[in-house]
Amino acid sequence: MRSALVALVLVLTAAAARAELPRPVARAFLDAGVPLSHVAVVVQRVDARRPLFAHQPDAPMNPASTMKLVTTFAALELLGPDYRWRTEAYLGGELVDGTLHGDLTLKGHGDPKITIEQWQGFMADLHAKGLERIEGDLVLDRSHFAPIEHDPAAFDAEPLRPYNVGPDALLVNFKSVRFAFEPNAAGDAVDLRMEPPLPQVALGPSPTLVDGDCGNWRRSVSGSFVNEPEAALVAFPGQYPRGCGARDWNVALLDHPAYVHGMFAAYFAAAGGTFGGTVREGRAPPAKPFAALESAPLHDVIRDVNKLSNNVMARQLFLTLAATSGPPPATIDGAREAVHRWLAKRKLAIPGFQVDNGSGLSRTERVTARGLAQLLAAAHASPVREELATSLAIAATDGTLARRMRNGSAAGRALLKTGSLEGVRALAGYLQDPGGTRWILVAMVNHPNAARAQGALDFLADWTLRNAASYTPPRH
After folding, report:
1. Mean pLDDT of successive 10-residue segments in the chain (476 residues)?
2. Which 8-state DSSP code applies to residue 207?
3. 19-82+299-470 to CATH, choices 3.40.50.10490, 3.40.710.10, 2.40.110.10, 3.10.20.310
4. Which of 148, 189, 137 lies closest to 333, judged by CA?
C-alpha cells in the first residue's frame, strides 16, 4: 500500500511539473532526453509582474554565458555606456632628437579589446610624436589589476584555447596568435602566415598540400605547440587538404608580458622605430602620459561580449567593475562585491546567486530563471535598455544565433544571450511578437543531455512568439 501511494505521489508530482509548461514545450525537452526536473523556464511580458508561465523559476542553475547579462547590465549602469579604457605610454628619460634616453613604460587599465589594428595605430602615434629610438627597456605597468592566479588548463584541460586566457590589466589582442592556411596561387603548396608576427614564436614549415575534402583538417595538419612563458615553438608537419581553402587556427601563446613585448617589438619596428631592449615589470611615473590609446566606448564593447559571447572580454569587464567599489588594484572579490552591491541597490534579490568571474565560463556560477527575468525587466525599464538590447544576438541574423532559428517565428524577432557549456544550455533575452508585445524569455538546462536540448530551447522561443499572446495557463 505504501509503495503504491509513493508511486502515485511521484506521478502526480511529475504531472504537476509538466503542467507548468505548455505541453508542446514540455514534450520538446522530454523528446530531447532532458527530464523537466533539470529545466528552468520563465516567460513573462516585459511590463508584467508575474510570468505567463514558469517552471522551476527559483531553482539555482548554472547559467553558462547568460551570466554575461548580469555583468554587462551592471557595467552599463555603474560605468556608463560611454566609459572608455586607456592604455598609456610614459617616457622614463629625455627624448632628444628622436632618441629616448631611458625606458618606455606602458600602463594598462584593463582594456578588453586592443586589436592588432588599434595597436598598430598606437605604435604609429608614438613614432609620429617623435619617438624613433629607445635606448632603455620596455616597462609594463600591470598594477591596475591585482595579480590573479590563473591556470588556463583548469576549466577544460585546453590551455591553448583563446577563451581560456586569463584577465590582465595590459591585455593585447587577447594574447592570441592566428595561423592562416591557404593553398598558394600555383596550387602546389600551402601558404602559412602567423599574425601577429611575434619574434618569440618560432614557426616550422608549412604542411604538405594534398587532394581531398577538408574533414578534420586540424588533426590532419598535426599541429604541435611547445608553449613556454617567454617563447614558443609551433609546427604543422602534417597534410592540408586542398578542399579546405582558407582556414584559421587561433592559439593562445606566451605569458602576458612576453606577448606584449613581442607585439611592441614587431609593430614599433613596423612603424619605423628602433628598440632592442628587454621587458620588465614596473610602475608608471607620476607624470603626464606621452601618448595614450583609448578604447571604443563601453556600449560598443559589450556587443562583442554578448553577441559573440567573448569570455576574455567579459572577465576584463567584470574586473573593471571593482573600480566602482574601491581604488585599484582591482580584485575578483572587489568585482563580486560591486555586483552584489549593485543588485541590492537595484532590489534584485536572486536566491542562490553566485558569481565567479562574470563570464559564465565557470562551474560554480548560479542564478535562477526568475532572477534573470527580473534583471531583464529592470534593464528594459532602465535608461540603458537600448544599449543592452542591441548587444544581444539577433535570431537567424548575427552572433551566436546567426545559424539558429532560421525557419521559425523567432528569426529577426528575438534578441537573446546564449549559454553553452558541457552539460549546460541556456537562452535569455527579449522577444517581440507580431502584435508588438514584448516578452522576456529565460530558459536553462543543466543535464548531461543539455546539448540535445538546443532544439527545444529554440522551439520554446518560436512557440512563445506564436502563442503567448493568446495562451491561457491551466489552473491547478
Report:
1. 40 43 97 98 96 97 98 98 98 98 98 98 98 98 94 94 97 98 96 98 96 96 97 98 97 98 98 97 96 98 98 98 93 97 96 96 98 98 98 98 95 98 98 97 98 98 97 82
2. P
3. 3.40.710.10
4. 148
